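Final report, closing paragraph on structural work. Over the funding period we assembled a curated collection of sequence-structure pairs, and we close with a single example.
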Amino acid sequence: MAAPVHLSGTRPYPWPYDGILDPARLALVVAGGQAWWAARTVDPEEVLATLRIAAKVVRDAGGVVVVLRHALRHPTGEPVFVPAADDVVVDCAGMSGFSAGGLDGELRRRGIDRLAVGGLGMETAVYSTLGAANDRGYECLALADASAFHDADVGPRALASITMSGGIFAAVGTTTALCDALVDNSSGRPLLGDLSIGDALLEEQP
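Its predicted structure, as stored:
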């Protein structure tokens, strides 16, 4: 039986709760990756760069990257996180990725039940998607370093609220811990072919 795998430093509990981090059951969900959110969040470019790096690691490990395309009552603009050819793009009618769209069915069809969620709009698109995912039974991780705040004061409070009551609908962690966990423990090499995580970071720089 394989040894449990938990990400380093997640709070308020070790994630995933059961110690099973199978890339085939994992999706990185990118919420709010459109121009409307980029214009209304703090340091969106830094967060997008972090998400692009994490997405490469997840893909190369055998996980899935899901990019949400939100439709609101006003134009949301062009995508600022451009999906790769094999990424899954899901339309949704609101802040939550599960609102009036096919996200739940797509994830279940692929056997995915572990979600790492980040994007632009911690207090809106990211938070709403996390809550809806938890309601549907997914084991969720909020990516603190890959979630842009709308407000520098309110955003951290929204993130901190996730850790209340033992983790109301997710644990909170980082993309660094996620990438570190997606390592072949038998060889000690990141699952990036001939690249290390450091090489991936350099590749993503403009």
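The chain is about 30% helix and 20% strand. The two ends are 43 Å apart (CA to CA). We thank the funder for supporting this effort.
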